[in-house]
Write a structure and sequence with these properties.
Blueprint (H helix, E strand, L loop, with lengths): L7 H25 L3 H45 L15 H68 L6 H26 L7 E3 L1 H18 L3 E4 L8 E3 L1 H18 L5 E8 L3 E8 L27 H11 L3 E7 L3 E9 L6
Parallel strand pairs: 2-4
Antiparallel strand pairs: 1-3, 4-5, 5-7, 6-7
């Protein structure tokens, strides 16, 4: 059987209503009484009753409202100090004050669970960071060890190529070997750069000029596929402090990927915008797009959908942008194209 529920305001005002009713009754009695002594006694009784009822009203306010409010303030102070195992005792009341207590207890429980989840994720991330740091050291050492014999192989191939007759069938094979040696060297260089990144060397620069210069490097591939490239005219883009070589590498990688994603007659545009805090550079293509199940993995090292790709370009690009205090994001729709967005802060954050 459910209990009768009354709002705490009603509980508080009920004694006041009783005072008014009693006063009205006393007034009627006084007016009907003609003898002064009786009137005085009645008035004395009325005053005493009013005082008693006011005392009761004060006690009701103290017990029903002030006490839970004081407890709530005390528990909030404990939460502020980091104690997320507190609960209020008035949560079992069947009124709005009880609702407030139950909401407070649920909120503290959610905060406690969220903190535990954040701590768990932090431990996981720290463990992963240590693991990646170890792998990075191993990769850097391995890259150095591979480069030396690789240079020897490349030298031997050149010598053999000079000694072979021009009409020998092995000349074509040596060309393939030379190409694969260069491919391995590229992978090793990118792996070394990813494992041991160089800190950015900041200098004032113009992002639009960097993008136009990167397009010059990509024009041969674009021309071979008949892909149009354009830097979209924009308003004034402020100069920023960044590492020109590293940001050029990022934009060149994004533009080349966009060109490769386009079919014949496709289009690649570089667009600029800015807000109060950041400058945004978007590389947009009209290519085949990236499937939704693939998109979350494109920034992972060694993940590639291209047969001759290293899978390190986008991972390295994101790391460079994040080292500049920015972020690199991608959205795509299959059959319509992709948009890679680089966001760089206007104000450089000092380390």
């Amino acid at each position: 059987m459910s209990r009768l529920r009354l709002n705490w305001q009603i509980k508080t005002l009920l004694p006041v209503a009783l005072v008014l009713v009693n006063g009205l009754l006393l007034f009627v009695l006084v007016t009907l009484t003609l003898q002064d002594p009786v009137r005085n006694r009645v008035l004395a009784v009325a005053i005493a009753g009013a005082v008693a009822i006011c005392a009761v009203l004060f006690m009701v306010l103290a017990v029903m409202v002030h006490r839970p409010v004081a407890e709530l303030q005390h528990k909030i102070a404990q939460v502020r100090e980091g104690d997320l195992f507190v609960n209020v005792d008035f949560a079992d009341r069947n009124d709005e004050i009880g609702d407030l207590g139950r909401d407070f207890n649920r909120m503290v429980q959610q905060l406690r669970e969220s903190r535990e989840e954040i701590e768990r994720l932090h431990r996981t991330q720290m463990s992963r960071a240590e693991h990646l740091a170890t792998l990075g050291e191993m990769a850097a050492g391995l890259a150095h060890e591979i480069r030396n014999p690789l240079a020897g192989i490349a030298g031997v191939v050149e010598i053999i190529g000079r000694d072979l007759p021009a009409n020998s069938a092995a000349v074509g094979v040596l060309g393939e070997v030379r190409h694969e040696v260069m491919h391995i060297n590229k992978i090793v260089s990118e792996l070394l750069e990813l494992a041991r990144p160089k800190p950015p060397v900041y200098k004032p620069g113009n992002l639009v000029a960097i993008a136009q210069h990167a397009m010059l490097f990509a024009r041969d591939q674009a021309a071979a596929k008949k892909v149009m490239m354009e830097v979209v005219p924009t308003g004034t883009i402020p100069e920023l402090e960044f590492d020109g070589g590293q940001i050029h590498q990022v934009l060149l990688n994004l533009i080349l990927n966009a060109v490769q994603a386009c079919g014949e007659g496709g289009r690649v545009t570089v667009e600029f915008s800015s807000d109060e805090r950041s400058v945004i550079v978007s590389v947009v293509d009209t290519g085949k797009g990236i499937p939704p199940e693939v998109l979350p993995n494109i920034f992972r090292p060694f993940f590639t959908t291209k047969g001759n790709g290293t899978g390190l370009g986008l991972s390295l690009a994101r790391r460079i942008v994040e080292d500049h205090g920015g972020r690199l994001e991608a959205v795509s729709e299959v059959g319509k194209g992709s948009c890679f967005t680089m966001v760089l802060p206007k104000e450089r954050i000092e380390d």
